[in-house]
């Protein structure tokens, strides 16, 4: 079943009335129960990113006898491997050392408010109450974090934990080792085609149909299935259907993984999709350029400037506010400016990428702000004035644009200075299948679809209209573990 056929059925539904064609359309989408299954397991997890790995490892730890983790790509890791790796959690041990006062209640409130209170409060509470447990669970499986926490881009408060190893690589390495240790069967080159339910829109989910590298059909049966295939940020047609501004944009770290077939497969068996027009962007690659500049992770160490060399938004704002501010610039991109301390605060991968960008003219470095401006094609006097004014705001702890006082603690004064493009790229899709607090997938009437669980970016209702920066990694490991635990329990029934 491809998108064109789905679109055709949608047109029929619109013309004749959805209720008149729902049963017919769903019958055409239905994949019958096969006479023979290729493989049978207790728990089937689909998608080998952070959510999938944590679900699979937990299911094994909770007593599931056989767990299969299926990945469509030739390698594991998904978006987790490519993400910044930053994770939010209220952590008294780390935060108290830095004089940071925090609470789970504040994390809950900020997450709900940032999503315009469109998220499910029960799910958000689970996230904020259990994020630190996820950090500790990861540490118990070999993941290492730095002692320092800070406020990441769009994170709204200094509770962001930073991996020792660059980006999300440490998570996947730790999860691969954990999966080997507990005996998870990891299989790659298995692309999800459809779920198999007892009847169209009725009964249990019995398993799933996949296509392997040889284009052969592979039927896998399971007592419980966990969907962890990620979002749809890499699917231009799907994302622009919900937000037309997203059509021409590049993506940040979604690559080939987040194409949305898991969402469509769940929808075909009756899953209800929510919040599909809530699509998040982050500073990324301008159209026609090669690299994504990432000098913006710690909001206390950089400024954004536009083509006029002036700041145009508080750098510690919500991600949707930052998105719209940049998309409203004349060229739809601005620039990130840091000093050498800010540059060195980034991990080795970011530093090396920025140096490559400098060689290819997509980033710039210079020993003075004026020289940097000339290389960027901006007015040197204007940029120098902007930087000097910003440094004075650090001294006074008051920013006319509104940057929070706690983030006005690093001047841009130490040469060499660095800058890169900051366009907007599609980063995260907040919409997806609706789940309950047990991560069971729900249909459009709010009923549980028996045997089907979901975790990670494939779900909706956890972030509302706008995701708090560094909440996604907390999301995938928190709800991945819950899904794995409950799927294991169901497999024993």
- Residue share in β-strands: 15-25%
Taking the alpha carbons of the first and last residues, their distance comes to 33 Å
Class based on secondary structure composition and strand pairing:
alpha/beta
Tally of alpha and pi helices:
16
- Uncertain regions: pLDDT < 50 for 5+ in a row? 1-5, 7-21
pLDDT averaged over residues = 93
Number of strands: 19
The value of Rg in angstroms is: 23 Å
Largest sheet: 8 strands, mixed
* Apparent shape: elongated
Task: Estimate percent helicity.
Answer: 25-40%
Short account of what is shown:
By secondary structure, the chain is α/β, with parallel strands linked by helices.
Task: Identify the notable features of this structure and list them briefly.
alpha/beta, 5-stranded antiparallel beta sheet, 16 helices, 493 residues, 8-stranded mixed beta sheet, elongated
Can you describe this structure?
By secondary structure, the protein is an alpha/beta fold. The chain has helices at residues 3-16, 18-29, 50-61, 78-82, 92-97, 104-114, 121-140, 169-182, 236-242, 261-268, 319-327, 340-344, 348-359, 369-376, 380-396, 471-491, and strands spanning 39-46, 67-70, 87-88, 145-150, 160-163, 185-187, 191-199, 202-211, 217-227, 273-274, 279-284, 303-305, 333-338, 363-366, 417-429, 432-434, 440-442, 448-454, 459-460. Helices cover 37% and strands 22% of the residues. The strands form 4 sheets. Strands 1, 2, 6, 7, 8, 9, 17 and 18 form an 8-stranded mixed sheet that branches. Strands 11, 12, 13, 14 and 15 form a 5-stranded antiparallel sheet that branches. β1 (39-46), α3 and β2 form a beta-alpha-beta unit. The radius of gyration is 23 Å and the shape is elongated. Residues 1-5 and 7-21 have low confidence and may be disordered.
């Amino acid at each position: 079943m491809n998108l064109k056929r789905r679109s055709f059925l949608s047109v029929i539904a619109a013309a004749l009335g959805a209720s008149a064609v729902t049963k017919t359309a769903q019958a055409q989408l239905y994949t019958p129960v096969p006479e023979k299954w290729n493989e049978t397991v207790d728990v089937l997890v689909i998608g080998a990113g952070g959510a999938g790995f944590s679900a699979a490892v937990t299911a094994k730890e909770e007593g599931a006898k056989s767990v299969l983790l299926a990945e469509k790509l030739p390698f594991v890791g998904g978006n987790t491997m490519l993400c910044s790796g930053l994770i939010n959690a209220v952590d008294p041990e780390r935060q108290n050392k830095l004089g940071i006062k925090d609470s789970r209640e504040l994390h809950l409130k900020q997450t709900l408010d940032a999503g315009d209170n469109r998220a499910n409060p029960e799910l958000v509470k689970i996230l904020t109450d259990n994020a630190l447990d996820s950090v500790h669970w990861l540490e118990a499986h070999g993941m290492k974090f730095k002692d320092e926490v800070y406020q990441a881009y769009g994170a709204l408060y200094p509770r962001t934990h930073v991996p020792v190893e660059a980006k999300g690589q440490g998570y996947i390495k730790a999860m691969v080792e954990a999966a080997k240790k507990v005996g998870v069967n990891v299989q790659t080159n298995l692309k999800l085609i459809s779920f198999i339910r007892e009847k169209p829109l009725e009964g249990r989910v019995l398993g799933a149909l996949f296509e392997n590298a040889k284009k052969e059909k592979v039927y896998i049966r399971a007592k419980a299935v966990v969907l962890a295939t990620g979002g749809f940020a890499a699917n231009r047609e799907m994302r622009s259907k919900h937000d037309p501004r997203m059509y021409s944009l590049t993506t940040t770290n979604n690559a080939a993984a987040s194409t949305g077939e898991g969402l469509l497969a769940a929808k075909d068996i009756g899953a209800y999709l929510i919040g599909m027009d809530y699509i998040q962007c982050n500073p990324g690659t301008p159209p026609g350029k090669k690299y994504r500049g990432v000098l913006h992770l710690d909001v206390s160490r950089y400024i954004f400037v536009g083509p006029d060399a002036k700041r145009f938004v508080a750098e510690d704002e919500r991600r949707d506010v930052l998105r719209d501010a940049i998309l409203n610039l004349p060229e739809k991109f601005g620039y990130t400016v840091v000093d050498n301390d800010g540059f060195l605060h980034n991990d080795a991968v970011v530093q090396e990428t920025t140096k490559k960008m400098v060689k290819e003219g997509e980033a710039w470095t210079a020993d003075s702000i004026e020289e940097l401006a000339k290389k960027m094609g901006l007015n040197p006097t204007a940029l120098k004035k902007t930087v000097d004014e910003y440094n004075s705001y650090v001294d006074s702890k008051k920013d006319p644009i509104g940057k929070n006082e706690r983030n006005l603690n690093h001047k841009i004064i130490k040469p060499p200075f660095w800058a890169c493009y900051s366009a907007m790229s599609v980063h995260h899709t907040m919409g997806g299948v609706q789940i309950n607090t047990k991560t069971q997938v729900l249909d459009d009437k709010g009923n549980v679809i028996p045997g089907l669980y979901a975790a990670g970016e494939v779900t909706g209702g956890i972030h509302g209209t706008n995701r708090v920066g560094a909440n996604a990694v907390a999301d995938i490991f928190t709800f991945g573990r819950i899904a794995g635990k409950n799927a294991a329990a169901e497999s024993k029934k």
